[in-house]
Amino acid sequence: GFSGWPALDGDLQAYSVMFNVIRDFDTGGNLTPYVGLGLGGASFKNQVTGPNAGFGALVIDDSNKRLAYQAIAGVAVKLAEGLALDLSYRYFAAAGTPKFDGTIGGSPVSIRHDYDTHSLFAGLRWNFGAAAAPAATQYKDCWDGSSVPVASECPPQLTEQQAANLDPVNVIVYFDYDKANLTPEASNLIKEAAARALANDVDAVVVSGHADRSGGSAYNQALSERRGSVVRDALIANGIAADKIRMEAYGEDKPAKPTEDGVREPLNRRTEVTISFQ
To answer: For the chain, how many helices (H) and strands (E)?
Structure first.
């Protein structure tokens, strides 16, 4: 015991109600670190007894309520969809210094002491209403090097019938998601179309860039312009005079396959080329 108090016996109980604000940090993986702050109230019950030869018996049996606060840091480890192992550290403290009244030998006495704790916790976290993981989309490769969902049709190919007559020839160049570069197959398609156009006395070429609705309208407009430009430049590189080409860009406004906003549709990620002859 303490000097002069050889047989002190006591018990301090603390109860708290806290309101916490937690901030998760999405890392895109299975670990989700987080931090938090809490504010609330704590109720303390202090009971201490002990004899003293010089002063008489010490008796403390009192309660005190204080404002309380805590700081939280932890990490959630994903175990399954919606379920995570939660590991956290918490620092808890009472504001001010709790005071407890009692007696020594029948005379009033008070004691004060700070109260704070450091705690480690482990538990399970269940996220109610967690969205189900989307089913993986299966893709197939098409003749022009693009990929489309297995349930969708591949882009139509330029046929010999189209190239043989002098009706306008339509060529469609498809692009991967959020891309404006030509695949080797698409470059060959443009080269073949340019050769046939030159062989049949080309009159005019209209190049129209398009995008699907998976991004913002302004972004898709710029993306359709880049797709149109890369096809126009490829036609010029293959011998089509620049003054015969008119370029247009429609963004997401003229889809080949109408969809809801935000949908990735391969058939809409395209540049259309219409070649007319004299």
So the answer is: 3, 13
Q: Whose CA is closest to 143, among 163, 130, 131, 158?
A: 158
Rounded alpha-carbon distances, angstroms, from residue 132 to 61, 100, 261, 263: 55, 54, 21, 18
Q: pLDDT (tens digit, 9 = 90+) per residue, 247-273? A: 999 999 999 999 899 899 999 999 999
3-state secondary structure at position 81: coil
Phi, psi of 162 (to 5 degrees): -65, -40
Query: What are the structural domain ranges in the chain?
Result: 9-126, 139-277
Task: Estimate to the nearest angstrom the gap between the alpha carbon of 73 and the chain centroid.
Answer: 21
Tell me the fold of 139-277.
Answer: 60s Ribosomal Protein L30; Chain: A; (3.30.1330)
Q: How far is CA 200 from CA 195, 243, 245, 275, in A?
A: 9, 17, 16, 10
Report pLDDT digits (tens) over 209-228. Answer: 999 998 899 999 999 999 99
DSSP 3-state of 247: strand
CB environment 185-206: b (16+ within 10 A), e (fewer): ebbebbeebbebbeebebeebb
